[in-house]
Amino acid sequence: MVPPPLSDARIPQTGAALGLSEYFAPQRTSTEELPEPGPLLENLTRGVLEVLAGVREADQLARWFSEDAFRVVVTRANLAARARSARGIAASRPVHQVLRIRTSSPADGIVESVVIVAGPARTRAVAIRLEGWDGRWRATSLALL
Predict the structure, then answer these.
(1) Alpha-carbon span 131 to 138, nearest angstrom
(2) Local structure of 25: helix, strand or coil
(3) What's the CA gap between 32 and 39, in Å, rounded?
(4) CA 48 – CA 126 distance, rounded (Å)
(5) How far is the C-alpha of 42 from the C-alpha of 102, rounded, in Å?
(6) Cα-based angle 123, 125, 127 (whole degrees, multiple of 5)
(7) Secondary element (H or E) of residue 112
(8) CB 139, CB 129: distance < 8 Å
């Protein structure tokens, strides 16, 4: 026996009326309901640098990125892998030190940050935008400078 399809009437309503698709769609989360973003920013930065160095799989970071931002990471990782292959350089674990994390909050549930990282060859800046979705932070934009 097939159960009857779910109708909007059977969905619990909170305040304003929500449609079926809105009820199951990703929900924004307020900054107050989210953990401190600093540790996540540091770990995401280290993870992305390890992906680019070829010592970590990009899929390990997928849950923390939006689709567009993850696509940027995968594209950069593929280009870095091709460059290492063309030069005959083996992947090696990078040694980076996080020097500073600067954050600002342009709106509730959004954090824009710059993480300054010192490596053996140069100092880099990693710009990350976090947005609160479904009770956790997700990186929606990433730029390595």
Answers:
(1) 5
(2) coil
(3) 16
(4) 9
(5) 11
(6) 165
(7) strand 110-118
(8) yes
- The structure tokens listed for 45 are 């930065």
pLDDT tens digit at each of 145 positions of the chain: 555 555 544 545 555 556 776 777 778 888 899 999 999 999 999 999 999 999 999 999 999 999 999 999 999 999 999 999 999 988 888 899 999 999 999 999 999 999 999 998 899 999 999 999 988 999 999 999 8
> What tokens appear for 64 in the block?
């923390």
Overall pTM > 0.70: yes
Contacts of 14 (CB under 8 A, 6+ apart): none
HEC states along 48-100? HHHHHHCCCCHHHHHHHECHHHHHHHHHHHHHHHHHHHHHCCCCCCCCCEEEE
Q: Which amino acid is at 45?
A: T
